[in-house]
Design goal:
With 313 residues, the protein is of the alpha/beta class. It has two domains: 6-132 and 204-309, Malonyl-Coenzyme A Acyl Carrier Protein, domain 2, CATH 3.40.366.10; 136-195, Alpha-Beta Plaits. 49% of the residues lie in helices and 16% in strands. It contains 14 helices and ten strands. A four-stranded parallel sheet has the order 2-1-9-10, with helices on both faces. The protein has a four-stranded antiparallel sheet with strand order 4-5-3-6. β4 and β5 (168-173) form a beta hairpin.
C-alpha cells in the first residue's frame, strides 16, 4: 500500500469462526502463545483448545464463537505489528462488525485484551439466554433495496438487523415472523433469502433480556479514550471518548448494525484502504460492494502476517 493513504482497521463478527483458526499463529510466535494462555485465564475456559480443535458445533455456539473471534483477531493484529512494525500503516479509524466492535475497542486501547475476551464471553452467554427466553431467527436477504425490506419488516413485526452493503441485508425477529418476512421478501423481488445459523434474533428488540445483564457487566469496566476514533455500529459515527462506549455496546444488542453507513463514513473521510484483521474475508467482500475502488488487505493467518514483510506487501 502506498504511504500517506488513509487506512482503517476492520474486525469481523460472529460467523467468521472456523475450527483451526489461530493455530498457525500460535505455532509461529511465542508472544501469541502467551496471548492464547491469557485468554484462557480471562474466562477460565480452554478457548484455545476450542479454536484449534472445535468441534465445529461447539465453536459455533454464541458463548464460544464470540470470545474466540476476539482472541484470534487480536492475535492477528499483534502478530502483524510484531512482524511488520512500522511497515504496517497506522489506522485513522477502527470499526468492528457487531461482535467485532469489542475487538476494535481492544485494538484502540479502550479496554485491555483480557477484558475484551471476558466481555465477549458474557455477551455471548447473555445473547444465548435471551434467545432461549424469546426464541427468534435471522435471515440474510439478497437483492432487495432497504426501503422495500423495511416495508416487509413493518408488515411482519421484524426488523432489519444488519445493513451490510447494497443488496445484502439481514432481518431478525420471532421465528414465525422471519419465515413470513422471508416469503414476502421473495415475492417483492429478493434474489435469495438464506436463514442464518444463530441462537436468537440478534440486533432486534428480542435481545432486550440481555441488556440488563450486560449493563451490570459493563458497569464494572473502565473505558479509556480510544487511540483512534472507533466507528459505532449503531450510529455509523466516530466515538472518541471512553464514556461513549458503554451506551454504544448496550444499544448495539437491540439495534441494527449500520455497516454500510460506517464504511461510507470512513470513505467520506478520505479512507482509501481497509485492513481486515481476523479470520475470513467477509468484510472485504462487503467493503468492495460498497466501493469497488477501495483497497483491501486481509490479515487472518500466519501466512498473511509473514507476507507483510515481503517487498510486494
Amino acid at each position: 500500500m502506498a504511504e500517506l493513504k488513509k487506512v482503517a482497521y476492520v474486525f469481523p463478527g460472529q460467523g467468521a469462526q472456523v475450527v483451526g483458526m489461530g493455530k498457525d499463529l500460535y505455532d509461529s510466535f511465542d508472544s501469541i502463545k502467551a496471548l492464547f494462555r491469557q485468554a484462557d485465564d480471562a474466562i477460565n475456559f480452554p478457548i484455545t483448545k476450542m479454536c484449534f480443535e472445535g468441534p465445529e458445533e461447539e465453536l459455533r455456539k454464541t458463548v464460544n464463537a464470540q470470545p474466540a473471534l476476539v482472541l484470534v483477531s487480536i492475535a492477528c493484529l499483534k502478530a502483524a505489528q510484531e512482524v511488520a512494525g512500522k511497515i504496517l500503516p497506522p489506522p485513522v479509524f477502527m470499526a468492528g462488525h457487531s461482535l467485532g466492535e469489542y475487538t476494535a475497542l481492544a485494538a484502540a486501547s479502550v479496554i485491555d485484551f483480557s477484558t475484551a475476551v471476558h466481555l465477549a464471553r458474557e455477551r455471548g452467554r447473555l445473547m444465548y439466554e435471551a434467545g432461549m427466553k424469546q426464541p427468534g431467527a435471522m435471515a440474510a436477504v439478497l437483492g432487495l433495496e432497504e426501503p422495500a425490506l423495511a416495508e416487509v419488516c413493518k408488515q411482519t413485526d421484524t426488523v432489519i438487523a444488519n445493513i451490510n452493503c447494497p443488496g445484502q441485508l439481514v432481518i431478525s425477529g420471532a421465528s414465525e415472523n422471519v419465515a413470513k418476512a422471508s416469503e414476502m421478501a421473495k415475492s417483492k423481488g429478493a434474489a435469495r433469502v438464506t436463514p442464518l445459523q444463530v441462537s436468537g434474533a440478534f440486533h432486534s428488540p428480542l435481545m432486550r433480556p440481555a441488556v440488563a445483564g450486560m449493563a451490570e457487566v459493563l458497569g464494572k469496566v473502565s473505558f479509556r479514550d480510544p487511540i483512534v476514533p472507533v466507528i459505532a455500529n449503531v450510529t455509523a459515527q466516530p466515538l472518541t471518548k471512553g464514556n461513549q462506549f458503554r451506551e454504544e455496546l448496550l444499544n448495539q444488542l437491540t439495534s441494527s448494525v449500520q455497516w454500510q453507513r460506517s464504511v461510507e463514513y470512513m470513505l467520506g473521510q478520505g479512507v482509501k484502504s481497509f485492513i481486515e484483521i481476523g479470520p475470513g474475508k467477509v468484510l472485504a467482500g462487503l467493503v468492495r460492494r460498497i466501493n469497488r475502488d477501495a483497497e483491501m488487505l486481509n490479515i487472518g493467518d500466519a501466512a498473511s502476517v509473514k507476507s507483510l514483510n515481503s517487498p510486494s506487501a
